């Protein structure tokens, strides 16, 4: 053994035990450029518990509900939030409007000077994938409030696809953001919510936004160290994707779409994109779903006027369309029914259009054209005939 070994070891140990001096590191009377505290993610600070310094990422009305709850909690004694700032992709979104009204600091995207200023980030309906270099600047990571029971309906439009698919159960998930994909991180908190049978996307979104903000997000922040310790990875089984909706989804194909599908499609996207179909060389917007019907058919449509529909003894079902003239303030209804060979019927209230010129120069309204040609429309859609007595 060399006698110099112990001396070298002691010298090394002495260097490692030096303390910061004047903002740098002191070593034999010289300052270095190493910062204090050292740079990098400080995950251990997350174990200290709330209140937290938050940076909120959001855009739409769904996100505003979470931001409202966080802003209210910040001003409450003993709350989970000590400071709150906001980052948005655009200055013209509901989240930015709320931040300005509440005088919350607003960051342009991408946010700068983040490191060391925040403990945790919160993402709600933001619409942009966050990079790892940004995530690493938050000691407790970044949380995401997602309106589905992950791993089902990952992606930007989970509520739309919940309605369109006919799901009877959905929920809210609070997960930890990961940089390599949307909605794939571990789950910290999750709650189940039943989907009402006739619920629209907007109605369900309002319920889930409130539940996600108050019950899930705030509860997670109050118990964050324990939630982080108990987080669970998502299972690949049952994972589905919810892509963005578009106007191309609003076209009805009568030969392929069932009544149930049309009903769900209207409740899912009707508030954004009214359903459409083509008829007599033009496009008709179906602006109001009147419902499904089970009505008896005695061979004459005249016997179907008035009264409530009744189910046919043979289980046959009818296709119903509700039409309304655009010239009347109080919209009247006319029922045009046809035997649909055991298929369920669907009813619509047609959109009002201004009069247009016929080939002979006379004006007629689009609704009048629809009424005169309704029989041909249903014959084309269902490959059957209406009685001549209609």
Word description of this protein:
The chain is of the alpha/beta class and 390 residues long. The chain has two domains: 43-229, Rossmann fold (3-Layer(aba) Sandwich); 247-382, no CATH class. Helices cover 26% and strands 23% of the residues. The protein has helices at residues 4-16, 61-74, 94-101, 132-135, 158-165, 201-222, 224-229, 259-269, 366-382, and strands at residues 20-21, 24-27, 30-31, 52-58, 81-87, 106-107, 120-124, 142-146, 169-176, 187-194, 275-279, 282-293, 318-323, 334-339, 345-350, 356-357, 363-364. The chain has a seven-stranded mixed β-sheet with strand order 6-5-4-7-8-9-10, covered by helices on one side. It has a three-stranded antiparallel β-sheet with strand order 1-2-3, with no helix packed on it. Strands 11-12-15 form a three-stranded antiparallel β-sheet, with helices on one face. A hairpin with a 2-residue loop joins strand 11 and strand 12. The N and C termini lie far apart (112 Å).
